[in-house]
Amino acid sequence: MALPKVFIISYSTYGHIHTVSQSIKEGLEKTGLVDIEHYQFPETLPDEVLGKMHAAPKPNIPVITVDKLTEADGFLFGFPTRFGAAPAQVKALFDATGSLWAKGALYGKPAGIFFSTGSQHGGQETTAFSFLPNLAHHGMIYVPTGFRNQNLFDNSEVVGGSPWGTGTVAGGDGSRQPNEKELSVAVTQGEEFAKVVARLSA
C-alpha cells in the first residue's frame, strides 16, 4: 500500500526557511511513515527587485501549482514573516485556490507551519496565527508542534519557534543562520507531523 504523501511547500527570500525545510524533511524521513515532495511557492517579484533586495538564489526545487495541491495528504508550509503575516507570494497561491475550495478538495487534510522573522519579537506566532483562516476556509486540520522538543523551553539564548511551529530568527540583516536548537525543533516537527498524517490516513 502506498504511503501517505506530505508536501513541504516553502518560500525563502534569504535561505533561512529553505535551511529549516531540510530539517523538517529529515524529521519526516526518519519515521518512514510518509512519502515527501518538496516545492516552493511561485515568486511574484521580478528579478530586478529581488536583486535590489540581495535575495538569495532560488533553491533547485519545483514550483508548486494549484492543481498539484490535491495530490498531497498533508502539508508543511514554511515562509518568512511580512509584518507578522505570510508574504504576498504565499497569499497569491492561496488566493488562486477558489476552485479547490468550491470542490472541498483540501478538506480534512492536515497542515503545519514553520516560519522565520528578523527578530525575536518580529511576529513568529502571529505569522502562524494569521495564516489559519486559509486552512479554516478549506477545512484543513492545523497541526501545531506543541512543546514536543525541549529546546522550546530554552531561555539561555535566542531560540526561534513556539508551540505553533518551528521558527528561526534571521537578524535584521539576515546574517544569523538557523542554529542547532532551532533545526532540532524542525526535525521534531517533521517527525510528529508524519505520525499525525499516518494516523489520519490509516
Write the layout of secondary structure elements.
Layout: E1 5-10, H1 16-31, E2 35-40, H2 47-52, E3 74-80, H3 88-95, H4 98-103, E4 110-117, H5 124-129, H6 132-138, E5 141-142, E6 167-169, H7 180-201
Parallel strand pairs: 1-2, 1-3, 3-4, 4-5, 4-6
Keywords summarizing the entry:
6-stranded parallel sheet, 35% helix, alpha/beta, 16% strand, globular, 202 residues, 7 helices, Rossmann fold
Q: What proportion of the residues form beta strands (DSSP E)?
A: 15-25%
Compute the number of strand runs. Answer: 6
Task: Please report the first level of CATH classification, the CATH class.
Answer: Alpha Beta
CATH superfamily: Flavodoxin domain
Q: What are the secondary-structure elements, in order, as H or E?
A: EHEHEHHEHHEEH
Uncertain stretches of 5 or more adjacent residues: none
The N- and C-terminal alpha carbons lie at a distance of 11 Å
Largest sheet: 6 strands, parallel
CATH topology: Rossmann fold
The CATH architecture would be 3-Layer(aba) Sandwich
Task: Describe this entry's structure for a reader.
Belongs to the WrbA family. This is Protoplast secreted protein 2. It holds the Pfam family FMN_red. InterPro entries: Flavodoxin/NO_synth, Flavoprotein-like_sf, Flavoprotein_WrbA-like, FMN_Rdtase-like_dom. By secondary structure, the chain is α/β, with parallel strands linked by helices. It has one domain: 3-Layer(aba) Sandwich (Rossmann fold). It contains seven helices and six strands, in the order E-H-E-H-E-H-H-E-H-H-E-E-H. Strands 1, 2, 3, 4, 5 and 6 form a six-stranded parallel β-sheet that branches. Helix 1 links the parallel strand 1 and strand 2. It is globular and about 45 Å long.
